[in-house]
Amino acid sequence: MILTLLISFLMTTVTPDPDEVAEKATLSEKADLAGNDTGVDVPSIIFGHIGDEYEWHITDWKGKAIAVPLPCIVIENGVHVFTMHRAEESGYTLNEDGKLVNAVTGKRPLDLSITKNVLAILFSSLLLLVVILLTARWYKTHDSLEEAPTGLAAAVEPLLMIPYNMARENIGQDYKRYAPYLCMAFLWILLNNFLGIIPFFPCGANLTGNIAITLFLALCTFFTVNLTGTRHYYKEIFAPEVPGFLKPIMPVIEVFSALMKPVSLTIRLFANMLAGHIMILSMVCIIFIVAKYGPLLSGGMTVVSVLFGVFLDALECLVAFIQAYVFTMLSSIYIGLARARED
């Protein structure tokens, strides 16, 4: 790998023939004048994948985009339903942030559209529901004390035991009250992490790399912690047993700490999953960026990009599990601290 990169560096630093440079410059100018930019727009590819859209782009075929149209639903002087192909006919357009706005006033209406991320949430939630129901069906028709689970139940049971054991160890005697939430959070995050790695419709959406979704998950933990906290938990926040000169300071620190817990949950999951998607897409884009520099450089960098891409995919699978595990573990610890009782 190092040898390939060194050769590539040397090739790019060799002084080219002046006549060849002039010829390429002329061709480049002609291409620019004709509007034929053969370069790869890496930012558009990356941000187009990690962002949300009003249609699900699948691929391009003969210069035309193949995409699944999604219903745009806006409420402004009534309910308007249309697709992006008919947005202008309905009086709406996209602003610089890619959001629907009124074409005349430029104001954003109440947007209830089924976007790419919304459709991905519906698909993954339905898939998780089917998996859980099929697993529960096996346990209803079999005696788990007499025979080991088979099929889907054999795959789901070890995954369910991970958050269940977390709840039992970190929360305490009333852990069964919170085990369903922790199991749901773990399986949903894990499923969407893996679905985001699969680059085929209806997979490939960047759900757990979307800060709005990770913030919602973190807020679920935040409200679970603070709405079910014991008297001892709030006493430790607002009236801790500390020396007198610390009493005015400690409540401020404790409240700030409580508010930072959902922030840390949000950023940790969002940043790790987003970074994984960006790195994989960047490695793929390198193949097309160097394609115009000749077969030797293109072939060498293609091999490097493919090897790194496979490595990053494997690493992303590991990160997908670790992030689901860490989010659930921290949530169980926060809940356990809130359920603590005085000795």
What's the average pLDDT?
83
What is the global morphology?
A: globular
Q: Which percent range describes the beta-strand content?
A: 5-15%
Give me the side-by-side strand order of the main sheet: 4-3-7
Describe the structure.
With 343 residues, the chain is mainly alpha-helical. The protein has 2 domains: 71-113, no CATH class; 116-338, no CATH class. It contains 10 helices and 7 strands. It has a 3-stranded antiparallel beta sheet, with no helix packed on it. Helix 6 runs antiparallel to helix 10 and helix 7 (211-227) packs antiparallel against helix 9 (250-289).
Task: Name the features.
343 residues; mainly alpha; 3-stranded antiparallel β-sheet; two-stranded antiparallel ribbon; 7 strands; globular; disordered N terminus
What's this entry about, in short?
With 343 residues, the protein is mainly alpha-helical.
Task: Lay out the secondary structure.
Layout lengths: L1 H12 L4 H17 L7 H9 L4 E7 L2 E6 L2 E4 L3 E4 L9 E3 L5 E3 L7 E2 L4 H26 L10 H19 L8 H19 L13 H17 L3 H8 L11 H40 L5 H44 L5
Antiparallel strand pairs: 1-2, 3-4, 3-7, 5-6
